[in-house]
Write a structure and sequence with these properties.
- By secondary structure, the chain is α/β, with parallel strands linked by helices.
- The strands form three sheets. A six-stranded mixed beta sheet has the order 5-6-7-3-8-9, with helices on both faces.
- The chain has ten helices and 13 strands.
- The chain folds into two domains: 5-216, 3-Layer(aba) Sandwich (Rossmann fold), CATH 3.40.50; 227-285, ACT domain (Alpha-Beta Plaits, 2-Layer Sandwich), CATH 3.30.70.260.
- Belongs to the ABC transporter superfamily.
- One of its GO terms (molecular function) is ATP hydrolysis activity.
- It comes from Saccharomonospora marina XMU15.
- Residues 7-233 form the ABC transporter domain.
Length: 302
């Protein structure tokens, strides 16, 4: 294993009866990297994370976490890792500060570190508020603070922004960026593709227990070689004329707009500018979501 790898998993497999949850997964995460694991429901993301954390024993394959095997339970690793699970469990009737003090006491952490974590996650003004009275976004931030209070080297976050409103989710992005800026390695799962595209250095897209693609988000999008969509207000240009413009590959019309698909947008945009039809124009390029759907399909999974 390279000396800079914070986590290395090789040919990891896990079954629940006849269900193959993880089927030969291999990847490495460098120190200080923000690494995302993406996939539909049931893809094997959480099971992979739990084996990497040492919470589950793999059926086969190896895990090296900070140079050591997390299974059987390695007590020397516990102070060096932080884990935030999908469902957070707090001590009843304790305030935000008391929650952090209790978690910190398990690692010999003093009150100064507790206050630092409250400041980091933006809960200093809620320090005396009982956990049960915090909002969903505040509880998520408190959960992350509990995972960080002992200053771990690597942090595992399982869907930390799930069920949050857009404002709370963006607020949590800032917290995650600050954690990474402190040199921590972050490994997390999410269903929000826009989030992963903004935050992650690299992502692995999983489905049916296997990794289908793994790279930097921008490189995955570029390699998709998808068409650019130029969207005009309906009536700005006749569909027949739009289809004859240089660079136009395909034209679709709905009740609100006309969309021109192209793999060579420059001459198309120049032609539209010459016709004075740039008002209200939108240009949509491929995103990580397009890569995800291309690899995993569009069928809904509960």
């Amino acid at each position: 294993m390279p000396p800079t790898a914070a986590l290395a998993v090789s040919d990891l497999r896990m079954c629940y009866g006849d269900l193959v949850a993880v089927d030969g997964v291999s990847f490495e995460v460098d120190e200080g990297e923000f690494f995302g694991i993406l996939g539909p429901n049931g893809a094997g993301k959480t099971t992979t994370l739990e084996m990497a954390e040492g919470l589950r024993e793999p059926d086969s394959g190896t895990v090296r976490l900070l140079g050591r095997s997390p299974w059987p339970r390695d007590l020397t690793l516990l102070p060096r890792i932080g884990v935030q699970l999908q469902a957070s469990a707090f001590f009843e009737k304790l305030t935000a500060r008391e929650q952090l003090e209790t978690f910190g006491a398990l690692y010999g952490v003093g009150p100064g570190r507790v206050q630092e974590m409250l400041d980091l996650v933006g809960l200093a003004d809620k320090a005396g508020t009982p956990e049960a009275k915090l909002s969903g976004g505040q509880r998520q931030r408190l959960s992350i603070a509990c995972a960080l209070v002992h200053d771990p080297d690597i942090v595992f976050l399982d869907e930390p922004t799930a069920a949050l409103d857009p404002q709370a989710r963006r607020n949590l992005w800032d917290v995650l960026r600050e954690i990474r800026a402190r040199g921590k390695t972050i490994i997390y799962t999410t269903h929000y593709l826009d989030e992963a595209e903004v935050l992650c250095d690299r992502v692995a897209i999983m489905d049916h227990g296997r990794i289908l693609a793994m790279d930097a988000p921008a490189r995955l999008v570029r390699d998709l070689d998808a068409a650019t969509h130029v969207i005009l207000e309906l009536g700005a240009l006749p569909a027949s004329e739009a289809g004859s413009l240089p660079g136009a590959d395909h034209v679709t019309v709905d009740e609100l707009s006309l969309t021109i698909s192209t793999r060579d947008p420059a001459p198309l945009l120049s032609a539209l500018a010459e016709r004075g039809t740039l008002g209200g124009l939108q240009v949509r390029t491929a995103t990580l979501e397009d890569v995800f759907l291309e690899l995993t399909g569009r069928e809904y999974r509960a």
